[in-house]
Amino acid sequence: MATTYQGMTTWDYSDYLEAIENGNFQTCSSTNVSSFSQIFVPTLYSIVFIIGFIGNGLVVCVLVKYRQKANVTDVCLLNLALSDLLFLSSLPFWAHYAAANKWTFGNIMCQAVTALYMLGFYGSIFFMIIMTLDRYAAIVYTQTSLFFKHRSVKVSILMAFFIWLISLAASLPKIIFSQVKNSSEGWICKEEYPHGTAWSLVSHIELNTFGLIIPLSVMVFCYSRIIPILMAMKSQKRHRAVKLVLVLVIVFFVFWTPYNIVIFLKFLRKLGYMTSCEWEQDLNLATQWLEAIAFSHCCLNPVIYAFVGQKFRTLIVKMSKQWFPVCFNNCTTTIGEISETKRSSMSSRSSVVSSTNIV
């Protein structure tokens, strides 16, 4: 059997032997899926790792450098970027796992990489929820919300610590049960749940609940209350704010919903439905694509939550001028020369036009 774990297809026959004994389905060949994942997964994960690491690393650098000016939103942004960096740190290992079709890093690294993966995954989701609730309180209950009135950076740091504890608690089952096993095709890193327990089913339900149902419900509820208030404002920037809100919800829905649907279908398969070979091969192949798409969402987080803000863009330019003064001085000089040339050209044209009018 080609067992898909974290988007990596490895060989393990234990599930099939158990299924055959129960009479649920016959052994299926997934050679095509395995060959596809050996090329597709390392390529996509490498691209996501490079782009995401640069974007989130830049967010962390800016927020740490100008931490004296930090507010509650900045603390959430920093922890969101750190979550994405933890998540991204696991991708090179999974990419190598897919390319080699076997785990070569040992049992301790299997649990450590799983910890990075799950902590980053849940941390990113939970901090997006906190940022949504913070915006909701700031806009809808500006005058009456006690939390909004008394919130501070210290309080947000304590809340961030609490979110990390929740993320760790949600990640513990996969971390504890992840281990390296020897199969006919080599060593594999996967979750090995005790036989006769519901841990495997619970992990699927947990992923769907925390990965899609709760965050999407919170975003839809909060932003459905925020949008009417923004539309009622007379500020010229309200339409831009509304568009940003819609982008947040739509991007999250588009990137994560298909992946969670596949996870739910795998949950049904474990219950005894859709046990044909075609279903198994289709689900494994769909997992390769949709997991990579969902994971690329961490590359967009810096753009959506940080780079669109005027304050953050200003700090990036300021930091870039300090780090790369030669480049920015040359760029500034070149831009100044171009502007001066344009002004001279416009002045000459104005003189010609004026002379023509006089004549």
Question: Describe it for me?
Answer:
By secondary structure, the chain is mainly alpha-helical. The protein has one domain: Rhopdopsin 7-helix transmembrane proteins (Up-down Bundle). Helix content is 79%, strand content 6%. The chain has 12 helices and 4 strands, in the order ββααααααββαααααα. The chain has helices at residues 14-22, 31-65, 72-100, 106-140, 146-150, 153-177, 199-232, 238-270, 277-295, 297-307, 310-323, 325-358; strands at 2-5, 8-11, 178-183, 186-191. The strands form 2 sheets. Strands 1-2 form a two-stranded antiparallel ribbon. A two-stranded antiparallel ribbon has the order 3-4. The protein is globular. Keywords: Cell membrane, G-protein coupled receptor, Membrane, Receptor, Transducer, Transmembrane, Transmembrane helix.
Residue fraction in strands: 5-15%
Provide the CATH topology: Rhopdopsin 7-helix transmembrane proteins
Task: Name the helicity range.
Answer: over 70%
Order of helices and strands: EEHHHHHHEEHHHHHH
The mean pLDDT is 75
Strand order of the largest sheet: 1-2
**Main sheet record:** 2 strands, antiparallel
CATH architecture: Up-down Bundle
Shape: globular
CATH superfamily (homologous) name: Rhodopsin 7-helix transmembrane proteins
> What is the count of structural domains?
1
* Annotation field: number of helices: 12
The CATH class turns out to be: Mainly Alpha
Structural class, by secondary structure, is: mainly alpha
Any low-confidence stretches, pLDDT <50, length ≥5? 1-26, 332-359
The N- and C-terminal alpha carbons lie at a distance of 90 Å
- Beta strand count: 4
Rg over CA atoms, rounded to whole Å, is: 26 Å
Domain G-protein coupled receptors family 1 profile: 55-305
GO cellular component, one term: external side of plasma membrane
GO molecular function: C-C chemokine binding; C-C chemokine receptor activity
InterPro entries: CCR1-9-like, Chemokine_rcpt, GPCR_Rhodpsn, GPCR_Rhodpsn_7TM
